[in-house]
Amino acid sequence: MKLDGKVALITGASKGIGKEISKEFIKNGATVIINYKNDTEYGDITFNELQQYGIVERFIGDVSNEEFVVSMIDSIISKYGKIDVLVNNAGISSFNMLVDTTISDFNNIMDINFKSVYLLSREVLRSMMYAKGVILNISSMWGEHGSSCETIYSASKGAINAFTKALSKEVSSMGVRVNAIAPGAIDTDMNKHFTEEEKKDIEEMCSLGRLGTAKEIAKVALFLCSDDSSFITGEIINVTGGKI
Ligand code: NAP
Prior knowledge:
seven-stranded parallel sheet; 14% strand; 3-oxoacyl-[acyl-carrier-protein] reductase FabG; 3-oxoacyl-[acyl-carrier-protein] reductase (NADPH) activity; NAD(P)-bd_dom_sf; SDR_fam; EC 1.1.1.100
Protein backbone atom coordinates (compact mmCIF):
# COMPACT_ATOMS: atom_id res chain seq x y z
CA MET A 1 0.00 0.00 0.00
CA LYS A 2 2.45 2.62 -1.21
CA LEU A 3 -0.15 5.40 -1.49
CA ASP A 4 -2.24 4.72 1.59
CA GLY A 5 -4.24 7.81 2.62
CA LYS A 6 -3.21 9.79 -0.47
CA VAL A 7 -5.61 11.62 -2.77
CA ALA A 8 -4.56 11.36 -6.43
CA LEU A 9 -5.93 13.12 -9.51
CA ILE A 10 -5.20 11.46 -12.85
CA THR A 11 -6.20 13.16 -16.09
CA GLY A 12 -7.05 11.29 -19.28
CA ALA A 13 -7.94 8.13 -17.40
CA SER A 14 -10.83 6.64 -19.40
CA LYS A 15 -8.42 4.25 -21.11
CA GLY A 16 -4.79 3.49 -21.94
CA ILE A 17 -1.99 4.68 -19.67
CA GLY A 18 -4.22 6.85 -17.43
CA LYS A 19 -6.57 3.94 -16.71
CA GLU A 20 -3.69 1.62 -15.74
CA ILE A 21 -2.10 4.27 -13.51
CA SER A 22 -5.48 4.76 -11.80
CA LYS A 23 -5.82 1.02 -11.22
CA GLU A 24 -2.30 0.74 -9.80
CA PHE A 25 -2.86 3.73 -7.49
CA ILE A 26 -6.23 2.49 -6.17
CA LYS A 27 -4.77 -0.96 -5.52
CA ASN A 28 -2.05 0.79 -3.50
CA GLY A 29 -4.49 2.54 -1.20
CA ALA A 30 -5.03 5.92 -2.88
CA THR A 31 -8.37 7.64 -3.25
CA VAL A 32 -8.35 8.26 -6.99
CA ILE A 33 -10.11 10.99 -8.93
CA ILE A 34 -10.13 10.31 -12.63
CA ASN A 35 -10.78 12.76 -15.41
CA TYR A 36 -11.46 12.34 -19.11
CA LYS A 37 -13.10 14.44 -21.79
CA ASN A 38 -15.95 12.55 -23.43
CA ASP A 39 -19.00 11.27 -21.58
CA THR A 40 -19.15 7.89 -23.33
CA GLU A 41 -19.90 4.28 -22.46
CA TYR A 42 -16.13 3.73 -22.62
CA GLY A 43 -15.62 6.00 -19.60
CA ASP A 44 -18.51 4.36 -17.73
CA ILE A 45 -16.96 0.92 -18.21
CA THR A 46 -13.60 2.13 -16.86
CA PHE A 47 -15.24 3.93 -13.93
CA ASN A 48 -17.23 0.82 -12.97
CA GLU A 49 -14.16 -1.39 -13.31
CA LEU A 50 -12.04 0.90 -11.12
CA GLN A 51 -14.74 0.99 -8.42
CA GLN A 52 -14.13 -2.71 -7.80
CA TYR A 53 -10.69 -1.90 -6.42
CA GLY A 54 -11.45 1.00 -4.06
CA ILE A 55 -12.53 4.62 -3.83
CA VAL A 56 -12.79 6.41 -7.14
CA GLU A 57 -14.57 9.56 -8.30
CA ARG A 58 -14.70 11.18 -11.72
CA PHE A 59 -14.83 14.60 -13.33
CA ILE A 60 -15.66 14.61 -17.02
CA GLY A 61 -14.38 17.64 -18.93
CA ASP A 62 -11.69 19.24 -21.02
CA VAL A 63 -8.41 19.83 -19.16
CA SER A 64 -7.46 22.61 -21.56
CA ASN A 65 -10.47 24.63 -20.36
CA GLU A 66 -9.40 26.91 -17.49
CA GLU A 67 -12.90 27.23 -16.02
CA PHE A 68 -13.34 23.45 -15.91
CA VAL A 69 -9.91 22.90 -14.31
CA VAL A 70 -10.45 25.55 -11.61
CA SER A 71 -13.87 24.20 -10.73
CA MET A 72 -12.69 20.54 -10.69
CA ILE A 73 -9.78 21.33 -8.34
CA ASP A 74 -12.04 23.47 -6.08
CA SER A 75 -14.54 20.59 -5.82
CA ILE A 76 -11.85 18.04 -4.97
CA ILE A 77 -10.25 20.29 -2.32
CA SER A 78 -13.67 21.08 -0.79
CA LYS A 79 -14.47 17.38 -0.49
CA TYR A 80 -11.10 15.82 0.41
CA GLY A 81 -9.18 18.84 1.75
CA LYS A 82 -6.09 18.07 -0.35
CA ILE A 83 -4.57 16.60 -3.50
CA ASP A 84 -1.35 14.70 -2.74
CA VAL A 85 -0.61 13.45 -6.24
CA LEU A 86 -1.35 14.96 -9.65
CA VAL A 87 -0.70 12.92 -12.80
CA ASN A 88 -0.92 15.05 -15.93
CA ASN A 89 -1.57 12.29 -18.42
CA ALA A 90 -4.30 13.53 -20.79
CA GLY A 91 -2.97 13.96 -24.29
CA ILE A 92 -3.62 13.65 -28.00
CA SER A 93 -1.37 12.93 -30.95
CA SER A 94 -1.65 13.63 -34.65
CA PHE A 95 0.37 12.41 -37.59
CA ASN A 96 0.86 14.86 -40.43
CA MET A 97 3.47 16.71 -42.44
CA LEU A 98 3.91 20.13 -40.81
CA VAL A 99 2.96 21.87 -44.07
CA ASP A 100 -0.41 20.12 -43.96
CA THR A 101 -1.30 21.25 -40.45
CA THR A 102 -3.47 24.23 -39.55
CA ILE A 103 -3.35 26.74 -36.72
CA SER A 104 -6.28 24.92 -35.18
CA ASP A 105 -4.25 21.64 -35.16
CA PHE A 106 -1.43 23.55 -33.48
CA ASN A 107 -3.69 25.13 -30.85
CA ASN A 108 -5.52 21.88 -30.15
CA ILE A 109 -2.36 19.84 -29.52
CA MET A 110 -0.57 22.52 -27.53
CA ASP A 111 -3.69 23.28 -25.45
CA ILE A 112 -4.53 19.69 -24.55
CA ASN A 113 -0.96 18.41 -24.14
CA PHE A 114 0.76 21.40 -22.60
CA LYS A 115 -1.61 24.19 -21.50
CA SER A 116 -3.43 21.60 -19.39
CA VAL A 117 -0.21 20.75 -17.55
CA TYR A 118 0.26 24.44 -16.72
CA LEU A 119 -3.37 24.91 -15.60
CA LEU A 120 -3.58 21.79 -13.45
CA SER A 121 -0.16 22.25 -11.86
CA ARG A 122 -0.92 25.89 -11.04
CA GLU A 123 -4.26 25.12 -9.43
CA VAL A 124 -3.14 21.99 -7.55
CA LEU A 125 0.03 23.62 -6.21
CA ARG A 126 -2.02 26.18 -4.31
CA SER A 127 -3.05 23.41 -1.91
CA MET A 128 -0.07 21.11 -2.36
CA MET A 129 2.55 23.55 -1.09
CA TYR A 130 4.25 22.35 2.09
CA ALA A 131 2.30 19.10 1.85
CA LYS A 132 4.99 16.88 0.29
CA GLY A 133 2.94 16.52 -2.87
CA VAL A 134 4.01 14.99 -6.16
CA ILE A 135 3.34 16.08 -9.73
CA LEU A 136 4.01 13.54 -12.47
CA ASN A 137 3.78 14.59 -16.11
CA ILE A 138 3.41 12.04 -18.91
CA SER A 139 5.69 13.28 -21.66
CA SER A 140 7.06 11.20 -24.56
CA MET A 141 10.44 10.10 -25.88
CA TRP A 142 9.66 12.37 -28.84
CA GLY A 143 9.85 15.37 -26.47
CA GLU A 144 13.61 14.93 -26.50
CA HIS A 145 14.29 13.18 -29.81
CA GLY A 146 11.56 14.61 -32.06
CA SER A 147 9.43 12.50 -34.39
CA SER A 148 8.98 13.10 -38.10
CA CYS A 149 5.35 14.02 -38.94
CA GLU A 150 4.67 14.60 -35.23
CA THR A 151 6.43 17.94 -34.99
CA ILE A 152 3.77 19.79 -32.99
CA TYR A 153 3.24 16.77 -30.72
CA SER A 154 7.01 16.50 -30.14
CA ALA A 155 7.18 20.22 -29.35
CA SER A 156 4.31 19.93 -26.84
CA LYS A 157 6.17 17.14 -25.05
CA GLY A 158 9.47 19.08 -25.17
CA ALA A 159 7.62 21.93 -23.46
CA ILE A 160 6.46 19.50 -20.75
CA ASN A 161 10.07 18.40 -20.17
CA ALA A 162 11.31 21.98 -19.69
CA PHE A 163 8.28 22.79 -17.51
CA THR A 164 8.98 19.73 -15.34
CA LYS A 165 12.62 20.67 -14.76
CA ALA A 166 11.88 24.35 -14.06
CA LEU A 167 8.91 23.77 -11.76
CA SER A 168 10.79 21.14 -9.76
CA LYS A 169 13.38 23.79 -8.85
CA GLU A 170 10.68 26.31 -7.92
CA VAL A 171 8.77 24.06 -5.52
CA SER A 172 11.42 21.71 -4.10
CA SER A 173 11.94 23.91 -1.03
CA MET A 174 8.23 23.40 -0.30
CA GLY A 175 8.69 19.62 -0.33
CA VAL A 176 6.92 19.12 -3.65
CA ARG A 177 8.52 16.81 -6.23
CA VAL A 178 7.93 17.17 -9.99
CA ASN A 179 8.98 14.50 -12.49
CA ALA A 180 7.99 13.19 -15.91
CA ILE A 181 7.87 9.83 -17.61
CA ALA A 182 8.87 9.78 -21.28
CA PRO A 183 7.30 6.61 -22.68
CA GLY A 184 8.32 5.00 -25.94
CA ALA A 185 5.65 3.37 -28.11
CA ILE A 186 2.95 1.91 -25.88
CA ASP A 187 0.13 -0.37 -27.00
CA THR A 188 -2.92 1.89 -26.51
CA ASP A 189 -5.64 3.42 -28.69
CA MET A 190 -3.26 6.29 -29.44
CA ASN A 191 -1.37 3.93 -31.75
CA LYS A 192 -4.31 2.03 -33.17
CA HIS A 193 -4.18 3.92 -36.47
CA PHE A 194 -0.85 2.28 -37.35
CA THR A 195 -0.97 -0.59 -39.83
CA GLU A 196 0.57 -3.96 -38.87
CA GLU A 197 3.56 -3.11 -41.06
CA GLU A 198 4.02 0.29 -39.41
CA LYS A 199 3.72 -1.37 -35.98
CA LYS A 200 6.47 -3.81 -36.97
CA ASP A 201 8.73 -0.89 -37.97
CA ILE A 202 8.09 0.74 -34.58
CA GLU A 203 8.91 -2.53 -32.79
CA GLU A 204 12.16 -2.81 -34.71
CA MET A 205 13.20 0.64 -33.44
CA CYS A 206 12.97 -0.66 -29.87
CA SER A 207 15.80 -2.73 -28.35
CA LEU A 208 13.32 -5.06 -26.65
CA GLY A 209 11.57 -5.51 -30.01
CA ARG A 210 8.00 -4.78 -28.92
CA LEU A 211 5.56 -2.09 -27.87
CA GLY A 212 5.32 -1.41 -24.15
CA THR A 213 2.16 -1.92 -22.12
CA ALA A 214 0.25 0.71 -20.18
CA LYS A 215 0.86 -1.38 -17.06
CA GLU A 216 4.63 -1.03 -17.53
CA ILE A 217 4.21 2.75 -17.43
CA ALA A 218 1.85 2.52 -14.44
CA LYS A 219 4.45 0.62 -12.39
CA VAL A 220 6.98 3.42 -12.92
CA ALA A 221 4.32 6.03 -12.16
CA LEU A 222 3.62 4.33 -8.83
CA PHE A 223 7.32 4.41 -7.97
CA LEU A 224 7.63 8.11 -8.90
CA CYS A 225 4.51 9.09 -6.94
CA SER A 226 5.36 7.14 -3.78
CA ASP A 227 7.98 7.69 -1.09
CA ASP A 228 10.14 5.03 -2.79
CA SER A 229 11.38 7.85 -5.03
CA SER A 230 11.68 10.50 -2.30
CA PHE A 231 15.10 11.72 -3.58
CA ILE A 232 14.04 12.07 -7.24
CA THR A 233 12.81 15.38 -8.63
CA GLY A 234 13.20 17.34 -11.87
CA GLU A 235 13.84 14.14 -13.84
CA ILE A 236 12.49 12.90 -17.17
CA ILE A 237 12.46 9.11 -16.82
CA ASN A 238 12.64 7.24 -20.14
CA VAL A 239 10.51 4.08 -20.29
CA THR A 240 11.09 3.07 -23.89
CA GLY A 241 12.23 -0.54 -24.06
CA GLY A 242 15.54 0.85 -25.27
CA LYS A 243 15.99 2.91 -28.41
CA ILE A 244 18.11 1.66 -31.29
P1 NAP B 1 -5.25 7.21 -25.17
O1 NAP B 1 -5.41 5.75 -24.97
O2 NAP B 1 -5.64 7.81 -26.47
O3 NAP B 1 -6.02 7.96 -23.97
C1 NAP B 1 -6.01 9.37 -23.90
C2 NAP B 1 -6.80 9.82 -22.71
O4 NAP B 1 -6.74 11.26 -22.65
C3 NAP B 1 -8.28 9.45 -22.77
O5 NAP B 1 -8.76 9.14 -21.50
C4 NAP B 1 -8.93 10.76 -23.26
O6 NAP B 1 -10.28 10.92 -22.84
C5 NAP B 1 -8.06 11.77 -22.54
N1 NAP B 1 -8.16 13.11 -23.13
C6 NAP B 1 -7.88 13.51 -24.39
N2 NAP B 1 -8.11 14.82 -24.51
C7 NAP B 1 -8.55 15.26 -23.30
C8 NAP B 1 -8.97 16.52 -22.81
N3 NAP B 1 -8.97 17.61 -23.58
N4 NAP B 1 -9.36 16.60 -21.52
C9 NAP B 1 -9.38 15.50 -20.71
N5 NAP B 1 -8.99 14.29 -21.14
C10 NAP B 1 -8.59 14.17 -22.42
O7 NAP B 1 -3.72 7.66 -24.95
P2 NAP B 1 -2.52 6.99 -24.14
O8 NAP B 1 -1.70 6.25 -25.12
O9 NAP B 1 -3.01 6.33 -22.93
O10 NAP B 1 -1.69 8.31 -23.78
C11 NAP B 1 -1.68 8.89 -22.49
C12 NAP B 1 -0.53 9.89 -22.43
O11 NAP B 1 0.70 9.20 -22.71
C13 NAP B 1 -0.62 11.02 -23.45
O12 NAP B 1 -0.19 12.22 -22.86
C14 NAP B 1 0.34 10.59 -24.53
O13 NAP B 1 0.86 11.68 -25.25
C15 NAP B 1 1.40 9.89 -23.72
N6 NAP B 1 2.21 8.95 -24.50
C16 NAP B 1 1.64 7.88 -25.12
C17 NAP B 1 2.43 7.04 -25.88
C18 NAP B 1 1.87 5.84 -26.60
O14 NAP B 1 2.61 5.24 -27.42
N7 NAP B 1 0.64 5.44 -26.37
C19 NAP B 1 3.80 7.27 -25.99
C20 NAP B 1 4.34 8.37 -25.35
C21 NAP B 1 3.54 9.20 -24.61
P3 NAP B 1 -11.52 10.66 -23.83
O15 NAP B 1 -11.53 9.16 -24.03
O16 NAP B 1 -12.70 11.17 -23.11
O17 NAP B 1 -11.19 11.41 -25.08
